[in-house]
Structure formats: structure tokens, C-alpha cells
Amino acid sequence: MKRKLVYNRWKIPSEEIRKNQDFDAILKNVHKEPVVYWKSIGFWGTAGMSAVALFLIISLS
Amino acid sequence: MRSVNPIYHHSTQMLSQEQEWITKAKENPKNFAPLYEKYHEQIFRYVYQRMDDKQSAYDVTSQVFLKAIHNLKKFEFRGVPLASWLYRIAKSELNQSFRDKKAKRAINIDDIQVATFMEVFEEETNSINKKRLFNALKGLNESELQLIELRYFEDRPYREIGEIIDVKENNAKVKTFRALEKLKKSFNKNIRL
Predict the structure, then answer these.
(1) Is residue B83 pLDDT above 50, yes or no?
(2) Of the four listed, A42, B12, B43, B101, which is most buried by Cβ atoms within 10 Å?
(3) ipTM, interface predicted TM-score of the complex
(4) Domain of B54?
């Protein structure tokens, strides 16, 4: 990893950092996160259909 | 004597208040708000100390809190402030950001910190010694640099360092001492600059 030495950098005041707080934006991203596949309707739909099909095959044969 | 960071170290009452916030935040991410307000500045300063670009530091800080909210269910309260866990997430997010953006890892140092090292090394503060120190710092590996930063740049007590790097206080002390010894050795090697 490359390194850069920064000397005597101006210290950001606390007020400026506070102004950049945005918890709502973080919450929005929390809700935006994709659902894990095994928790999705698609997964359970496919799994359910497969189970029914398997059951029918076994019971009819 | 080094003072204890009052924001980081809590009374029993403050710790139980924090535990209550964590429990509520596990039920609903909206309840993470007081923890975000409490630790945002600390985490931002930790991140920005290691980065060159301010906006990137704000982005990484947001990413730290997003990760924390996502993984909060896995968090187990062990009687230490949530900050130690947040610092560990911050470290991992920083490394990810350095890899993705191929950005340089920054080492921020000022006159006061240079003077502290010169006092420890029993050397005079002048431009040659400053250059020797900068070269020596660049020669440390990541974990040694992290210990030097936590102790000598950010002025943290060993107890807090131990909680951040997830080792016992004594172990943190030994590791920091070794990192300082290595820095000193490297500083003395650069004598011909």
C-alpha cells in the first residue's frame, strides 16, 4: 500500500463534522440493500414448485 | 499522566444506557440514531487521520455506520463501548477503500507530534530529524503504524488501544513498545540524511 505523509494539516472543526451528519441517508441505504436470495420470494417459489413436482413424481410412479 | 478519553470511556451508567440503545437498534435500525450521533465525529476523525481526501473520509465514515447497522445483530455486548467495534469496522472499510480507489494511505502528523517523538528519542527538533522521522514512519508495517498512531498521534491510553485492536491492555502496551523500538531503530538508521 502506497503511503503519503501529510504535515500540519488544518484540523476540521467539530461543527463542520456535525453538519455532515446524515443519518437519514444511511437509513435509506439500509433499506435499499438487496434481500438475501434464500429469503426472497423467487427462492421459495422455485423451491416450493420443485417440492410439489417431486412429490407428484414420487406418488404417481 | 495521560488522560482518559471521556468520550470513549464511560461510567457504568453510560455503558448501560449504550446497551439499551443497542438493544433497541437491533429491533429497528431507526433506533441507531443516538449511537450515530455519539460516535460520528470520533469515527470520522479516525478515518480522516488515515486518508488524504476529506470527502472520501466522509464516505468511508457513512459506510462504517451502514455496515454497523447491518451487522448489529451479530454484535455481543461485552462491557466495552461500541466504539471499539466501530473502529474495527472502520479499519476494514479503510483498507477496502484503499484497495478500490488505489488511493495512498495517509499519515497525518503535526509539529506537536514531531516534538513528542524528538523528546522520546532524545533528539533535537530540526528539519533533518523531521525528515528522518518521516522516513522511519513510512517504513513501519500497517499494524505497527496503527499502534504508533493510536498511542502517539491520537493520545489514547493502552486500555482503549487494547479494546480497539482486540487484545489485553498489557499486550497493547508491549506491542506499542515494540513498534516504537522499531521506529527508533529505523530513525537512527537514517542518520546520514
Answers:
(1) yes
(2) B43
(3) 0.83
(4) 12-101
